[in-house]
Amino acid sequence: xxxxxxxxxxxxxxxxxxxxxxxxxxxxxxxxxxxxxxxxxxxxxxxxxxxxxxxxxxxxxxxxxxxxxxxxxxxxxxxxxxxxxxxxxxxxxxxxxxxxxxxxxxxxxxxxxxxxxxxxxxxxxxxxxxxxxxxxxxxxxxxxxxxxxxxxxxxxxxxxxxxxxxxxxxxxxxxxxxxxxxxxxxxxxxxxxxxxxxxxxxxxxxxxxxxxxxxxxxxxxxxxxxxxxxxxxxxxxxxxxxxxxxxxxxxxxxxxxxxxxxxxxxxxxxxxxxxxxxxxxxxxxxxxxxxxxx
Length: 294
Description:
Strand order of the largest sheet: 10-9-8-13-11-12
Number of strands: 13
Distance between the termini: 38 Å
């Protein structure tokens, strides 16, 4: 039996195919669309999700059932002595609290370690890749949990939104604000940090929003993350719910602004896309968890 395994959920941007290649497990997240339950990556594709969204369907996210969580834990424990369970950030969902309670059961105590890592989407994807490196370096499961939880505030992502409709539906802005935003071509930039999605700046037009995000990331890397960047310990991240061509252009724009840095880009997770809609673009960064910052 192998020592340490990783289980996450589909809010991590990790597909079932990648999970199989990496030897980890991904729990498909449930979504309710007009009252019908779908599972991300299984019965719910990105194409179907956005088709339903465009048609005006009511889409809501949901926690996985305790039975589903325990089923995938049991599967993992047949291969690994201990499991690091890394669900969506506790700041965005109650999944962490539910899992933490389940892990206290005698069957799982000491074998399932639920990590409060503060991540979602591409930052969580990157953290899981970093976690696999920590396992290879010989850290224990308990040490890795501590490292990841200490590192949870050392990431952030800016997301530029093309449409205000989904923010209105989710109650993040009022219908009046959405109507005014459409009239004046307001494109908000959101800031996702430690699992919390907040407003950062309102821009006139999406080109301005893109420039604003690049400038914000430049400032982050020149100040808060300067030490880690100079040490080569910062990952540059991107995400998109836009077309393939727009995504390619966005990654090229980031690479031009930050020469020499590799960009990892993912499709924006469906959970975040519920709020942003189609056409959203994101840029972010994350520090390697075991890098010591002063």
